[in-house]
Amino acid sequence: MPFFQATPSISIYYIDESPFSCHSPPKYTALLIPGITCDLHDWNWQVPFLLEKGFRVITPDPRGQGRSSAPLPSENITSYPGPDASPEQIDYYPQSTASDLLALLTSLDITSNVLIISHSLGTCAALQLAVHHPSLVCGVVLIDPLHCMPSSLCDQLFPSPEQATSAMRDMLGSGGEMYPSTVPGWHRAWITRRGMAQDPKITAAMVSAVWTDKDGLGRKEVSVEKHGGRKIKCPRLTVGNSEMWVATDAEEGMQGDKDEVVVITGVGHWLHQLKSEEFNDVLGKWLEKVGLVNEVAASTAGSQREVHGGEER
To answer: At CB < 8 A and 24+ separation, what contacts does 39-45 make?
Structure first.
């Protein structure tokens, strides 16, 4: 089973798959980053689709999630410690998740042509990678990106780390656009029970890192400053379950003719699962629009499927 030791305290579990290739992995890689309390199985609806398109597919469990290491966060962390912080200090900022995933890709000799597909909390790490490593990322897909929320709303809903977890649970449990009545009971149970399995202190650290922190990447104003305009050099596709979720990108972030904003309504926050065929169709058409489908197909012609990966550590 593949694990990657990102730091002395953090081991990242991941699955590495390729379409039929007998000699070497494909030139193009899709990195799929799930949302808070979620894991790599959130992408079971997209992995076969991407393999059929010719991508190598890397699905990690981010730190604190799934089968990856989940040490309790260090006390009194109220801002991003930075890349040079002591490895003994544990934080759950998306910047640190991005560093973990960059190190994972580097260990696999993946240094370019990466399509990042991300959901919810995962969109913060995706944007961090796209902005700071433009030679690595060839495209970024954001599903219900967190940066739709202005700071005033973040201050109201997530005023302190102590209130962050209960506020997020209230948000998920309130129905509405997040979880409308059209969502099947089995899906609500799956998401709820999986969230209950994560240590509340880790959940609180993740939520407060993006929304309570005044410099959190989940705040609209912060994200626009750090990620907006022409700071992202690659094509971007933003898909939301309502106009609210895509508003920031529609107003601030879309600059090129290869960027696109799409709304898929009726099934809430996990639209890529509950309307997977519609989402995959949108994704496929956008990949064609930006020219990635033809490039990927050409790079994987005549290959056969195999599974790669690291060693359990």
So the answer is: 39/65, 39/66, 39/67, 39/194, 40/13, 40/14, 40/15, 40/66, 41/66, 42/119, 42/270, 42/272, 42/273, 43/117, 43/272, 45/272, 45/273, 45/276, 45/279, 45/280
Q: Report the greatest alpha carbon distance in the chain.
A: 55
Q: How many residues does the chain have?
A: 313
Closest CA to 79 of 67, 57, 64, 96: 96
Flag whether pLDDT at 313 surpasses 90.
no
What CATH number corresponds to the domain at position 191?
Answer: 3.40.50.1820
Count of structural domains within the chain = 1
The DSSP 8-state label assigned to residue 6 in this structure reads -
Domain that holds residue 304: 3-308
Instruction: Using DSSP, state whether 222 is helix, strand or coil.
Output: helix
Of 257 and 234, the one with more pLDDT = 234
Phi-psi region of 144 (alpha: psi -120 to 50; beta: other; left: phi over 0): left
Whether the CB-CB separation of 6 and 63 falls below 8 Å is answered with yes
In a domain, 313, yes or no: no
Average pLDDT over residues 237-249: 96
Q: What pTM was computed for the model? A: 0.93
> Which of 195, 166, 173, 190 lies closest to 64, judged by CA?
195
Q: Where are the alpha helices (DSSP H) in 81-160?
A: 94-107, 122-132, 151-157
